[in-house]
DUF2630 family protein (Streptomyces achmelvichensis), 79 residues
Amino acid sequence: MPDDILQTIDALVAEEHQLRSQAPGSGLDAAERARLEQLEQRLDQCWDLLRQRRARVEAGEDPADAQARPIDEVESYQQ
């Protein structure tokens, strides 16, 4: 299961990098900026889920019981 999350993270990061590489020259249009924001939110959510699963493994619990938290909850965490 963590491999699935890592693959999702890799795909999201690749798309994020592709969008950001466009920014210096022509900048991003409104749709691209919105997509970048969605990518950042989804990445935060995926990283949180991965941390939950790893913590469950360390605690001897089933990592499959971890649930993705709502984006508004994950976004409010302090980094």
User: Anything to note?
Assistant: The first helix runs from residue 2 to 26. The chain has one domain: 2-73. Residues 20 and 27 are 9 Å apart (CA to CA). DSSP finds three helices and no strands in the chain.
